[in-house]
Amino acid sequence: MADMKRVKHILSIGFVCVCTFVLTNCGPGKPKDGRTDTFNSGVIAIAADQSFEPIIQEEIDVFESLTPLAGIVPRYVTEVEAVNLLLKDSLRLAVTSRRLTPDEWQSFHSRKFEPREIKIATDGLALITNLNNPDTLITVNDLRRILTGEVRSWKDIYSKSKLDDVVVVFDNKNSSTVRFAIDSICKGADLFTGQIKALQTNQEVINYVTKTENAIGVVGVNWLSNKSDSTGLSFNKEVHVMSVSEAMEATALNSFKPYQYYLFSEQYPLARSIYALLNDPRNGLSWGFSSFLTSDRGQRIILKSGLLPATQPVRVVDVKDE
């Protein structure tokens, strides 16, 4: 089924290319920069942080179904690669969890470019554990102590734990989750590599945690969405999603899971923004897709995925989190 979907996608891109060639070569003339895409037609490549692959792919699928002359070819890479591709003018749109740095702004300005940063959602970094691990509450401070190597055993945090040393699993050493851990959790301190593993993808992190009792995985919450639950109040049943507290001691009352409401109320402490970084002076298809991401339809897709949309109202539901 996946292969058939990929074949259909390639054929649709080919059709778009033919249509774009006919439309642009039968007109008054081609643009001087050689680009043929418009706000709602053509084929472009974009880069997206691999953490956001499920939601961005769904956005692309819906956008292409509504805009038949447009094709989006995604490159799911690390955040570092995504920004570098934008800086090198290899593409005009990158979806990341951070804004441009002053040096990156200067690089664009030196070439007479005026990029844009458009917030499209708020994401929660989820901490996942094996189903055989009974400890489901953790403080940000204890997480920081684990990441910096101050504590190494589950018993250092939970005295009754029967598990061995903690293993923290990230998707990639150059990923946005690692950057968030260093900047926002460890406040710039180095990670203790002795008990940290870097794999390649968020799905690999989930698979590792399902097989490893003493592991904590760090993944984007959209990888854990239960598609059959329209309320967005349940996650992947193969792992536990930990409740996280900013207090010095985690309790059921002061610890929160990355539900949309807790992202909205800023009670979930491991939240980050998602941005569409644009560098397209021609108002081409990258602008068209970015506008879709912030439109009512695009924001509803984000809402359904479990993330917090940037412009869509959030419906508050009173639930008891066990």
Describe the structure.
This protein has two domains: 2-122 and 275-309, D-Maltodextrin-Binding Protein, domain 2 (3-Layer(aba) Sandwich); 123-271, 3-Layer(aba) Sandwich (D-Maltodextrin-Binding Protein, domain 2). The protein is α/β, with parallel strands linked by helices. It is built from ten helices and twelve strands. The model is unreliable at 1-31 (pLDDT under 50). The chain has helices spanning 2-25, 53-66, 79-87, 102-110, 140-147, 176-185, 202-211, 260-264, 285-294, 296-305; strands spanning 42-49, 70-77, 93-96, 116-129, 137-139, 167-170, 196-198, 215-220, 240-241, 243-245, 271-278, 308-309. The two termini are 37 Å apart. The protein is globular and about 65 Å long. α2 (53-66) packs antiparallel against α10. The relative contact order is 0.18. Helices cover 34% and strands 20% of the residues.
Write the layout of secondary structure elements.
Elements lengths: L1 H24 L16 E8 L3 H14 L3 E8 L1 H9 L5 E4 L5 H9 L5 E14 L7 E3 H8 L19 E4 L5 H10 L10 E3 L3 H10 L3 E6 L19 E2 L1 E3 L14 H5 L6 E8 L6 H10 L1 H10 L2 E2 L13
